[in-house]
Amino acid sequence: xxxxxxxxxxxxxxxxxRPAGFPTREQVMDFITSADQPAGKREIAxxxxxxxxxxxxxxxxxKDMADEGLIDIGPARAFHKMGGVPKVTxxxxxxxDDTTLIATPERWEAEGQPAPRLRIxxxxxxxxxxxxxxxxxxxxxxxxxxxxxxxxxxxxxxEELLGVVEEGDGGKLWLRPVxxxxxxxxxxxxxxxxxxxxxxxxxxxxRPPRITARVTDILGDPFAPRSFSLIAIHKHxxxxxxxxxxxxEAVTASDLALHEEKREDLRHLPIVAIDPVDARDxxxxxxxxxxxxPDNAGGYKAIVAIADVSYYVRxxxxxxxxxxxxxxxxxxxxxxxxxxxxxxxxxxxxxRADEDRxxxxxxxxxxxxxxxxSWRFSRAIIRVAAVLAxxxxxxxxxxxREEPLLETALKPLWAxxxxxxxxxxxxxxxxxxxxxRRVVLDxxxxxxxxxxxxxxDAHMVIEDYMIAANVAAAKALEAKKAPVMYRVxxxxxxxxxxxxxxxxxxxxxxxxxxxxxxxxTFNRLIExxxxxxxxxxxxxxxxxxxxxxYYAPSNLGHFGLALGSYAHFTSPIRxxxxxxxxxxxxxxxxxxxxxxxxxxxxxxSSLSGEDMENxxxxxxxxxxxxxxxxxxxxxxxxxxxxxxxxxxxxDLIEARITGVQSFGFxxxxxGLGGDGLVPVSTLGDERFFYDEAGRALEGVESGDRYTxxxxxxxxxxxxxxxxGALRFELPDALPQRPSFRKDRARPGSARRGRPxxxxxxxxxxxxHRR
Length: 770
Description:
There is one protein chain. The protein is 30% helix and 25% strand. The protein contains 20 helices and 33 strands. It has a five-stranded mixed β-barrel with strand order 3-4-5-7-6. A hairpin with a 5-residue loop joins strand 8 and strand 9. Helix 5 (227-236) packs antiparallel against helix 18, helix 6 packs parallel to helix 9 (342-348) and helix 12 crosses helix 16. The protein is globular and about 100 Å long.
């Protein structure tokens, strides 16, 4: 009786009396905080063996504890300690602090308390996670914060929908996605103040199959200048706004003294920067002259001067953390998302003409055969004599444009380049001459043209100087046994080579798998193709057979360039990997300068202990960011191409088939790029079978064959700038009769050619070939 009375007193008056043996608040709290899975009412009841009325009593107890602020109700009706995080929960990665990923709970319902930021502790193979990913994680308190141990990477939820508001039948509003891979529009349940035609961000509401969209942000007119880039920025989660702290630190850093007396003074040399005509920053400049050393007759001296970004962006600074988070600058036709704030990226670190600039100078000595005999690195001060566009430099060399620096700067550069070219030809790097698209805009951001960039000797001149400097940087650090952030490009995998062999067989071109594959192997293959019509698609297929380059502190060589040691050194304004290489050179060769005064900017500009410890993790992160940037840039150009072609819907255009599937074939507009689909349903009342090994569709009755690489005229049926999608039709295409599928199924309706009961499976046929 006493026991029952005592239990009554321990329970608030509005709760029912609980049976003897029922768990106390402390026991429930201990279970919730120590459980290794979400602790809901069912799990708690099972743990304490509660049944029937006891479960009802447990529900009341948990409500009491929540009302009293002891516990929170989390996702899936699980409970956790008030102000804490469930032991197992879904997190979203939102930030990176140095090399540590930061996540927050996907759902956070504690009123008045900010969502906690958990440090991700990865074990085993790392690098699979990045900002925006969702994970199921086990959490624990550590010190004054929380850490999370990933258990499983989850599919990205469509938490944020990016699309255009459109009006359907009866005035109903729909969200048309900007991602062409999403083929279904979403009904809008809450449009807010958005109007028809607005580009918006929305969040999904409800549960499948009744998902609707609630508009959260209005981005504006999807066809306005810069909107195509904004679409890519939001879709890929690219950081594009600098915090006030970072901006302020950039201003402070840009005022650092150059320490001219402690730098090598190269201002007397006619150093020139040669860049694209639309370049937003200039981080490299070059100079060359005949070597006066009689022991090196016919040789040259050269300097590749690179902006000394490591002097301004130092380990541990806010600038450094932001640069690492971004990994690289992202270049769109209408804007740049820079890795560094304007004060540095396009001002103090940009090598402008006739202005003193801090530089990291790579001094090269080449012999008459083009071999780099020696190199050294110095912190220098330079004054660029001129910033020239590639086209202008080439025109000066060709004699079609006057240039004051022709004799003193350009001709020596080209003469030295003939030596570099000798060495390159001997090395035989992979020579894939694939076109690069360039979108030209007017001053109002409207499209003027989309064209393929012309490949000039001037491009190869600068490219070869940069490669020589990158090799020198890697070897210089190896000589000092210093850390190197290598640019790694591994040889093609056997699976890729087998696929290439099968593809080439469709052109009656043999490719032996037993040989030692080198870049020269592919060059010989291209030479065998000559100027045949199929040359572009064969080069594209060779490109697809290559592995993707990445950054890592372990050296596996660069297959494509046929180099044993290679690092990126020449673009520290726009690539974090290059900044790390600069820091490593500063430390390895004692190039540190006096520490800044005031204590705002960190003292050292060489690699920190944290830099060295986390080289592997940083390499993985910046490789991911590079792939993100490439995808965003490519998609944006596709949108511009679609916008440019929108005025030509209905016109006949020259196209080339780039891919074939059972449902149709993809074609690219010659000279512009941008893929579009020709659905098999538009090919007329004929059955087509899909030859997977031959990558072709062939008409059973007519024998018409559509294969990869084929050039043909197509009618542009649709161009959608919002998602960058194109759709084509044959010029004389007739719509397929609705009854066509039924006709095929009727007895006696079999057409000439392959019997209707035999289906060609290209994969099996291809397997027998191998």
